[in-house]
Structures are given as structure tokens and as C-alpha cells.
């Protein structure tokens, strides 16, 4: 490893669907993830998960510990002697629960590693392996927030928000932010206009988050923002391109007279495209969306454009990460439910991009192209981080230096309100200290 740079791997993965069939899917998913680690050989790994425990988390949450254990005890991670894992699992608390999971693994070759304490406003050393799970509201080395209730479409409470950590790695300071934004509920609504009402809700939530970081009471730092943004293509634009010259037929619902589907047919009455509330089916669906999508579909991927002044992204040359089939035998094909889109992204603040050593190859892609990984393919970014970036350390901390004795805003303080129990997993060579927080 170059002493001046650190190879790091950033991965975002919506893992909800793999918990629907944990007996098979957890092993398959983990093997693909670990194979990627072996191939890319990073020394700092950040895995951001959304929908930890699955959609039926009350039943599936018990499998999360097995999932974490499979990763942390793997042979591929045997030389990663330090770890920090944060799992927001307390689904009984609707006002706090996000189902987010941030997992960080640090190689033994990295000696200078610190993590930020958001309560005491200082960096603290990182030793050994710690897992924080259950109710993690009082954990001081993370910041977690749920979007305000009025952000939720139709005022329905949802598991959407962000989970942030701050690091000092070989003297370079940066934030790692896991985020989960709102999805599209209906293709019909999504195709009405661009930006759609769903896109506007996502934009509002992301603006809210970035503004919070811009006015950060902890001092600004370069940030890597990666998660399930649920960004969708301009559905109306895609449909118009795919159906140019075709005939549109509305299929009526016999019960209430509303149309339930749109059929687009050619001059020979052959059905080319079907669009329903939760159906999006092209007669040549797999090839048209899996092959050369960057050549035509990418022009309809517009949601990120509104944030060009705040974040950047490396060139996307991989197919849309969502929605893939959840059946193990069909994991290389898209489901016929939504227009395939690049929902899962790794974004960087402009200051964070300056920390990337671009004289070495940057790799941005998906994991498990030929394997079933659930409905979302994990997306990764492999970069080399510049160490000892002193200018950015100073910029990140200057706010703290000028207001060292001032109390931060009360809403940014995580007040301890839980009891911590310590558990050790015995079947791992390096014992892992687990902090399982339970609300009092």
C-alpha cells in the first residue's frame, strides 16, 4: 500500500429482500460481497445497508446477527482487526426507527484511525471490534436522524432517514453518510410529469439533509454520501421514447371505470409496452434495459442534476441497480414492475472528491451482476484516499476551534437514555464487543 494513500471500498446495499429468504440468500449475498473485497483489496471498508432485517422486520430481525457474523468472521476479513457496526433495529420506536445499518472494517495495517464522538465533540481512538445494535439512540459515535414527519408522502410514517459517522483516517477527516429516500408508489403518478411528486419529495429530503451538513454544529467535513436514493428515471420521457409511433389503449377496470393498465401496440397490433400501477413490461425488456442502457436510458436519469452544486458522482457505466428479480434462478433479470433505475449511488461532496487520488484507477460498479442479490444490486466505489490531507482537517475542524466552549444545538445532542449490555461472540478469533442498547 502506498504510504500516502489508503485504498478504501464504499458499498451501498438495500438488503431488505434477502431477509425474505434468509436460509439461501444471506449466504449467496455474503459470498459475492466477500469475493468483491478479495478482488479489490481495500484496507478500509464501509458498507451501508438499508432495510436491515427486511420488510417484515419483526420476524426477520433475528437473522441480522447471523448476517453480521457471516461477514465479520469471514476469512476475507481476518486481517481487519478493527470494526464499528451500527444497526438501527428498534422497530418498536416508530419516531426513530430507520432500519439502517452502517458497517466499517479497518485493516490491521492502518494504525492512525479515529472516530468522532458527537456528544463530547472530539475524536477518539478506534480499537478492537464493536457492534451497536437494538436501540442505538444513545450511541455517541454516530448521528442518526429521521426525516420530519411532514416530509413523508401522504403523511404516512416511513423508515427513511440518514445515519452518519465521522472518521480521521491517517490524518484525513471525512464523514460517511448512509441515506434512504422515498420510493415511487405508482407508475401512473410517476409518469405524470418530471419531476414527479415522488421526485420532489426525494429532493426535499435530500436538500434538508445537505443543508444540515452545510450548517453543521460539529464543523464541516468532506462527506461520502451513499445509500438508496431511490432516484428514478424520467418515466414520462422513457415511455415516450419507447412508444414513439405506437398506439395507446387504456384498459378499463370493470368495477369503477378507472383504467388499470396502458397498452402500447405497433401497427401489427403487437403489444410492445404495458404500464400499470406496479407493472412496467416491455416486449424486449431484459435486453433493452440490461444492454447499453448508458447509451440511451442514462439521459433520463435526471434527479441528481438538482444537486450538482453540492455533490458529484463518478461516471456510471453499469446498468440500473433496481429492480432485479428476487428469485435465485432469475437474479440476472429485471422484475417487470418498474422502469429500471439507478436507485443506489455513491456520491461525494466536492471537497471529498479532492481527497480521491485519481492517478490510481477509480472503480464504480455493481456487485453480483450474474448472481441473485435481491431486488437491489449493491453498488460500490473503490478509490484511493489521500492521507494526511491537512488542509481538509483544518477546514473540517475550524468551526470547532472558534466555538470550542459553545454548546451545540440541543437537537443535535444524543442524550444517553438506555442501558447497555456487553456480549461476546465466541466463535470469532478476535472477540467482538457487542453493545446491545435497550430503551428504559
TrEMBL record:
One of its GO terms (biological process) is phosphatidylinositol dephosphorylation. GO terms for molecular function: inositol-polyphosphate 5-phosphatase activity. SMART domains: IPPc. It is an enzyme of class 3 (hydrolase). The keyword Lipoprotein does not apply. InterPro entries: Endo/exonu/phosph_ase_sf, INPP5A, IPPc. It holds the Pfam family Exo_endo_phos2. Keywords: Hydrolase. Gene3D superfamilies: Endonuclease/exonuclease/phosphatase. Residues 4-391 form the Inositol polyphosphate-related phosphatase domain. Its EC number is 3.1.3.56. It comes from the Eukaryota. Belongs to the inositol 1,4,5-trisphosphate 5-phosphatase type I family. This is inositol-polyphosphate 5-phosphatase.
